[in-house]
Amino acid sequence: MKANNPPRVALEECAPNVFIVHDIRVRPFLHGEGDYTGNRFVLTSWRRDGLFARIRDRGLEVASLDAQIAALPTLPPAPPLAATPRWHVIGHADERWSYYDAPSRTIIPCTVRDQQSRAVVAITPGWLVRRRRGRGGGEWYRTMVQGSDTIQLTHIDQDAAVLCGLAQAATYVHAPLPLTPQSAGVVVLRTPVLPHPYIQCANRWATSDRDGITWHVPVAHLHWMQHLLARLSIVIATVPKGDSNA
Q1: In angstroms, what CA-CA distances link 152 with 177, 182, 244?
Q2: How far is it, in rounded angstroms, from Cα 195 to Cα 198?
Q3: Cβ(181)–Cβ(241) under 8 Å?
Q4: DSSP single-letter state for residue 69
Q5: Secondary structure element (H or E) that encloses residue 122, with its range
Q6: Which residues lie across from 119 on neighbouring strands?
Q7: Which helix (H) or strand (E) holds 1?
Q8: CB of 66 within 8 A of CB of 227?
Q9: Long-range CB contacts (< 8 A, 24+ apart) of 190-195?
């Protein structure tokens, strides 16, 4: 028995109203709706939702920006935190340990101290922790209680760790992220660390720094950023007065 394969994307939105045509069967639907050059289509008509509906009714997949946001990974259950921290021995002198701090949604260095001539870090079981050596990106671990006084470290990839950290952060109350006017019709937004699929998606309508934390977002496209961050229980402040129509 053949496995069910997901439908091939026929039309993919790579920027607001700009599409890559992956399947020529969508071409008849695009006539009169915009400009078509090579495998690029620019939507200029107001019939956006109707166009997508007609294409999907024929069994063809449209990866609109809204659909791409809806397909992003959701928050997992928040790992529970223990009441008190435990001490973990640092294996090498050049190791640097940090943890995802849910109340601030930032990555913070762990507390280090000497204990019986050994360097140890304080880790609360349930934290997502990162170990770095040198200038590398580091390795992430989920932490759990082990025995009466030690900690179990389970390797986890960075995106899964960030999602778990954001799930813990969602159990706290956070103020909306502020928006700062940058230029006509553009605002600056600083976000917590985001999983890479979220960064890649948001870069289709906004531009970010290398770390995907500081974003320059056209006000006209801010609703996509709001929807994307809402999946992570992150709220954006309202558009500053005077920029809503820019």
Answers
A1: 35, 46, 50
A2: 5
A3: no
A4: H
A5: strand 118-123
A6: 114
A7: none
A8: yes
A9: 190/214, 190/215, 191/215, 191/229, 191/234, 192/105, 192/106, 192/166, 192/234, 193/105, 193/106, 193/107, 193/162, 193/165, 194/162, 194/232, 195/73, 195/158, 195/159, 195/162, 195/163
pLDDT digits (tens, 9 = 90+) for 7-16: 589 999 999 9
The reported pTM is 0.90
Q: Kindly compute the dihedral angle of the four CA atoms of residues 50, 55, 56, 62, in this order, to the nearest 10 degrees.
A: -90
- Tell me how crowded residue 168 is: count the other CB atoms within 10 A of its CB: 22
Give the residue among 34, 30, 52, 51 at the shortest CA–CA distance from 42.
Answer: 34
Cα end-to-end span (Å), the chain: 56
pLDDT digits over 53-89, tens only?
A: 999 999 999 999 999 999 999 999 999 998 889 998 8
The answer for residues whose C-beta is within 8 angstroms of residue 136's C-beta and 6 or more apart is none
Neighbour count for residue 225 (Cβ, 10 Å): 24
In single-letter form, the type of residue at position 75 comes to L
- pLDDT digit string (tens) for 110-165? 988 887 778 889 999 999 999 988 776 789 999 998 877 788 999 999 999 999 99
Q: How confident is the model at residue 1 (pLDDT cuts 50, 70, 90)?
A: very low
